[in-house]
Backbone:
């Protein structure tokens, strides 16, 4: 294994410690929420609100994280690059939050929360704080200060977990679920404030000297990324919003509870599929600056291709581990009222495998500066997401959401590959891709075709298949078992 890849793995491990452990700790809140919210519709409210958070954070960071990494490579004055991006993000968020304070009641009415405009204000404050602190955190990544980055993330996560446990176990009254939603939002707001407090030096060192020309160049680079990110987040989260609003019948107010219940069930089961994206998030924190740092290396394409081999093998392994051990993972959701949605988990796991491969491939348009292609791919994907969900949700409910996610991510992966080969060719090893992906899919189908009644016997057989997959990967990559 080459030294650059060892460096990537090392940084992924550190970033992964904050991301994977942090996400897992946050995942522990799902059993808490599904237990204290006996009615899935109440958890559906929380899930939909956080779907909006995902939308807003993409817009409010304005693509400046990636622009910051890209422009660092071409400018000697690193502080000027950071300052321009930072001031741009602050300006966007100040404008956003002022608008939100003025229109919060109108927004609450549109979102079907007419009596809860406080949800909107708290949500806006959370995303504005998170967006503003994103660039100082990106600066830590660029400076390879992974430990400091991880400690800040851990501190925020720890506060969020602690407050959630305190609020929901000791103060929450189950007969007043709307209070539970407020407790969750307050806990998140306080946890978000931890990050700027620990990054206070970056805020105190702000100099209001703005390089307009540099800002324009960064915006030209980042705006397509914003469009791509916004369209991408449609693919990731719009299904929960559409599920609620399409299932809801305005002529029958009682249907709102059913609509929110469907969102709650789907969202709880979606969390199981997101175990792939936990790994992906940790990887992305390290991979983006790593890939940019390899831009001038003669062996960069070989490194990119080799990284892809390991990545595909790993995400396919996670797909198998979760989907073939669903009898274990389903107990992560404490309330059986949510288990009716477990059938979507393998579909969503596979979808997230495609998403991970797409993210890994997408480095070609970021490295080449042709970020418009990311926007094109995401816009087509977003259009497909909307069309499939709108057409099929009325008949198939949240299963339509799951299949739409799979179709769209598969499309994005394929489209990115073919465009990349045309405009910034990287010779990926397709033989290994089809071997790892096809092998994982074949083993999953074999497991499903074998109808084994006993839970323990079924788990034994399924995990034997997982071991077979590992042996295949180790043999192909020539990794000695004694090193593991």
Residues:
């Amino acid at each position: 294994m080459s030294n650059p890849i060892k460096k990537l793995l090392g940084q992924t491990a550190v970033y992964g410690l904050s991301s994977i452990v942090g996400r897992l700790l946050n995942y522990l809140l799902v059993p808490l929420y599904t237990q204290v919210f006996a009615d899935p519709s109440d958890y559906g409210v929380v899930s939909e609100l956080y779907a909006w958070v995902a939308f807003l954070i993409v817009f409010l960071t304005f693509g400046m994280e990636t622009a910051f990494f890209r422009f660092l490579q071409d400018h000697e004055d690193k502080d000027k690059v950071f300052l321009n991006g930072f001031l741009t993000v602050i300006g966007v968020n100040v404008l956003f939050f002022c608008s939100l304070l003025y229109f919060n009641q109108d927004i609450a009415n549109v979102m079907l929360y007419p009596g809860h405009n406080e949800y909107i204000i708290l949500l806006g404050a959370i995303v504005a704080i998170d967006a503003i602190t994103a660039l100082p955190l990106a600066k830590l990544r660029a400076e390879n200060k992974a430990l400091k980055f991880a400690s800040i993330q851990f501190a925020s996560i720890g506060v969020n977990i602690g407050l959630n446990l305190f609020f929901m176990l000791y103060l929450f009254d189950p007969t007043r679920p709307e209070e539970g939603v407020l407790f969750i939002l307050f806990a998140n707001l306080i946890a978000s404030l931890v990050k700027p407090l620990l990054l206070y030096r970056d805020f105190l060192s702000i100099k209001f000297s703005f390089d307009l020309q540099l800002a324009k160049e960064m915006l030209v680079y980042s705006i397509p990324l914003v469009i791509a990110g916004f369209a991408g987040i449609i693919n990731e989260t719009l299904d929960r919003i559409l599920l609620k609003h399409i299932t809801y019948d305005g002529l029958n107010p009682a249907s709102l509870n059913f609509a929110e219940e469907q969102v709650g069930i789907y969202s709880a089961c979606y969390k199981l599929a997101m175990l792939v994206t936990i790994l992906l998030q940790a990887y992305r924190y390290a991979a983006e600056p790593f890939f940019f740092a390899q831009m001038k290396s003669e062996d960069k394409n070989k490194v990119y291709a080799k990284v892809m081999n390991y990545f595909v093998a790993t995400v396919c392994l996670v797909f198998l581990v979760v989907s073939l051990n669903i009898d274990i993972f389903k107990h992560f959701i404490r309330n059986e009222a949510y288990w009716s949605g477990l059938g979507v988990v393998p579909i969503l796991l596979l979808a997230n495998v495609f998403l991970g491969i797409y993210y890994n491939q997408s480095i070609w348009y970021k490295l080449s500066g042709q970020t418009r292609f990311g926007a094109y791919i995401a816009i087509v994907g977003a259009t497909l997401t909307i069309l499939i969900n709108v057409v099929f949700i009325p008949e198939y409910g949240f299963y339509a959401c799951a299949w739409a996610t799979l179709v769209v991510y598969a499309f994005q992966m394929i489209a990115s590959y073919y465009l990349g080969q045309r405009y910034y060719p990287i010779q990926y090893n397709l033989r290994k891709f089809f071997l790892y992906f096809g092998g994982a899919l074949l083993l999953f189908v074999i497991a499903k075709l074998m109808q084994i009644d006993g839970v323990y016997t079924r788990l034994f057989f399924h995990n034997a298949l997982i071991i077979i997959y590992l042996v295949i990967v180790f043999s192909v990559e020539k990794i000695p078992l004694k090193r593991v």
User: Anything to note?
Assistant: The chain has 20 helices and no strands. The chain has a mean pLDDT of 84. Residues 3-483 form one domain. The radius of gyration is 22 Å.
